[in-house]
Amino acid sequence: MNCKYCGAELEDGVTLCPVCGKPQTEDETVEAAEAAEAAETAAEAAEETGEASEPVKSCGRSEPCAGCEALNGCEQAGQYFADELAAQKKAKQSGAKKIVLGIVAGVLVIAIVAALIVWLLPGARTEQTPDETPASESVVDDAPQQTPDASAAAEGPVVHTNDYGYTSYTATAEQLTDRVLGSVVATCGNRELTNRGMGLYYWQQYYAFANAYGSYLAYFMDTSLGLDEQLYGENVTWQQQFIDRAFLMFHHIAALAQEAETAGFALSEEDQAYIDTFAENLSEAAVGYGYESADEFLQLQFGPGVTVQDYTNAVAENLLASAYLQSLVDAHTYTDDDVSAYYDAHAEEYEANRVQKLDVPNIDIRHILIVPAEQNEDGTYTDEAWAQAQAQAEAILQQWLDGESTEESFAELAVDNSADGSAANGGLITDVYPGQMVDEFNDWCFDAARQVGDVGIVKTQFGYHVMYFSAVGEEIHWRTVAESDYLSEFSATLEDEIAAKYELTTKLDDVALYNVMAQSAQ
User: Fold this and answer.
1) Is the CB of residue 237 less than 8 Å from the CB of residue 228?
2) ∠123-128-134 over CA atoms, to 5°?
3) pTM reported for the whole predicted model
């Protein structure tokens, strides 16, 4: 069995996890069905109040697409995110560890530009110009010099029960003295995590989560409340959940970094050069974005006491851990049969997600979507509207046939006539794989007789699509997905095995976190 909170392996019958110290009581999470129902209810409420007035996505895809401009109004995306939340809850119940976002790869917002757009996330300063940076007692130009507060020091840990009746680790700026910020809250081998570092790991977990779900974050939490003021699951707040994730993230990075040092692994010249210039580049970028210093920027994102040096050290540790793990994955040899066997072992899951084991290459398709204009009271399109849409689609196809009949002329018609988001790109959708689109669209695209240059009209639930078969690619989708998943699982197994060699000890009661969301809202 595994710990429900940190994922550590436990012997059967264990009631207290020796790693994170959490009791292994009966289920303490919201049931997946309830989570999905809550998401659906939120979507329905938004529609009733007119907030979901944008049309549903009508490109024919059966799943939401990264970067889609119509995501907020996408019916498929709404269900997808509801299902995703249910899957996360289910994974947490089974002790699955990979619900933790960013344990190694991509941790701590390594890229300079990515770091400097954190302020666009919910709760961060979105309305202020560089000249309107709010003053804060916790923000200084250089490395912060906290004034010791004798009374705060005498009071001990900041953990308390808040007004909502939940255990809270939120500290005020006055409570975050040098002693509190320097308190060690976790150790792993020869690595120690203080509250300064905890702020980095903790808020990175929140930012990664918020960035992953974007406008759908409201399905999971109320961003107007503190993370310690609302529940993630039964008797577990979002703050406690992100603390658990932060501890786990520290554990894995610290273990991998130490293993890399033991193995004599060194960063590449490129990676080392990146670290060597990181602090300078971050400082220049922060000032360029209107902050007085990089310290100011970091403290707005991660809390008082965090300095450029702290952040640089964390990035270097993460980069060492990530590069070492990647080197082990790169050294792993496997065959096509291994990938095929991996798919077969997970066939039910893949097929449920429309990843079919067909040796059919991806294709590029152009289409022009004509959406019926009128709806019945139940939301379906009227027969007259369907007939008008069909006539319009046939007229557009005939216009193309009467003209140059080239892909370029089809693209021009798509720009002028298509109701789909792909119109701006001439109706082009690339790397379409079998099962990705709704059935009618999919069947036309992957007809065995289909040839480049073929045209036609397809009716789907979204309207009439004037089709143009653009190109056949080389990638076989199921194999690409299965290979990626196979290597990800191998990487995760390696990561777990290495982490298991280095014991993690935590001092949860000594954790002290600053609410940077409230600070940014001031």
Assistant:
1) yes
2) 85
3) 0.68
